[in-house]
Structure formats: C-alpha cells, structure tokens
Amino acid sequence: MSIGAILTAEYLESGFHVFGTILGERFARKPGRRPVAPLDMLGIKNVPITDGITELGTAKVLAQTDGPLVAESIRSLAGKTDRKRLLKLILATVAAEELGVDVPLPDLPSEWEKPIAFDSSYTTALSTLYLIAKGKAHLIEPLYLDIPESAYSIVKGLSLDFLMKVNTDFYSSLPRDLATQIAPRFLDLGFSPYTESDWVEAKTIRAYLNRTFNISPPSR
C-alpha cells in the first residue's frame, strides 16, 4: 500500500494515505500516532480514517455508499474456501438487513468446507459476538468447528451496539480540515460516538476476548 501511495502521490496530488485498518484487539485503547517513515519523508500523512470502526462498521458504510459493488468486492477479496469470503458476506448481509437497504448478494451457505477454531481470529470472534447478541448466531456457526458456550453467556443482556458505532478516540490526532469532514460524514452514515454504557460493554468484551486469545491487558 505504501509503495502504491508513493508511486501515485504526484499524479493524484495526494497528501494523505489510509491503510484501511479497523478496530480489532486494540478497540478499547487510545492509540498513538503511527508514522510511516517512507510516507513521512515525502510529506504524505498516514491518517486513521477507518481505525475507529469495526469490520461490521465497514460493511455498514459500504451497504449505504457502494451497495452494487459489495458482492463483486467480496468475490475478489478471497478464494471460495477462505474464511474472509464467508465472513464478509455474512457481515454485508446483516448490515444491509439492519439498514433496510437492498444490496444484491449471493445466498449464504448452510455449511463451510474449511471451518476454523473460535480462537483463530480476534476480529472474527468480535463480529461473532455481535451476531450472537443479535440472535443471528446461525449465520456464523458454519464458519466454526465449535463456538464455546462462554461466547453465548458473555453477551447475555448486552446489546453490543457499540460495534456499529464509532470510537472517536482514534480521531483525536486528525488534522482539523479532515476532522471537520469526517465527523459529519459518520453521522450521515448512522455512526454515533460511544456512550458510557457502550464503553462498559466494550471493556467487558475486550476482557473476555483477551482471556480467549491469551492477550495481556494494556499497561497503564
């Protein structure tokens, strides 16, 4: 990505670059600035435009802005047996359904050729907890060899709505001219900032996933 940004910077007259990273295992931690030396040398700033939303959030964005292209993008994303292909299809299906928008997508398979362990991917497990909380576990179950009972019990009584919101901590270092553009755009697309109850749930889920994936809590 950096090489592509460097090669096209002059032609596109670009001063910023986005890596497209999303909320994962650091979703409840305030990030520091992540400079990229080759880009910095050329005056291209790395800006975390997507850092504050989850992969569910990206599906929510695309379902509203580029619906007709979603299915084609999923097909080009990964091979037919890659977990990413099934996961993105599920997330796009759920996002479109929740938004009430028509996105032409293929049917979800009832089984998956290469199921994975629950602790294979943090971000996938995070999305899975949302699906369980929303009563849609049946959509994601074919992806896994097994979903532990603890995943079902941890979300009882939780909404996990924060996974469809925006963590504004990730935008505190944005240049002002970009911040004034992205804030109203998030609101237009239905992304409100985390509330206090969202943070309570976020910390509960982070603690659970940290135990599941043997991740040490952040130092203070």
Brief summary:
It is globular and about 50 Å long. The protein has two domains: 2-53 and 167-191, no CATH class; 55-154, no CATH class. Helix 2 (37-41) links the parallel strand 1 and strand 2.
Structural summary, described in words:
Helices cover 49% and strands 4% of the residues. With 220 residues, the protein is mainly α. It has two domains: 77 residues, no CATH class; 100 residues, no CATH class. The strands form two sheets. Strands 1-2 form a two-stranded parallel ribbon. A two-stranded parallel ribbon has the order 3-4. Helix 2 links the parallel strand 1 and strand 2. Helix 4 packs antiparallel against helix 5. The chain is globular. The model has no long low-confidence stretch (mean pLDDT 86). This is Cyanophycin synthetase. It comes from Corynebacterium afermentans.
Question: What are the main properties of this structure?
Answer:
mainly alpha, 2 domains, two-stranded parallel sheet, 4 strands, Cyanophycin synthetase
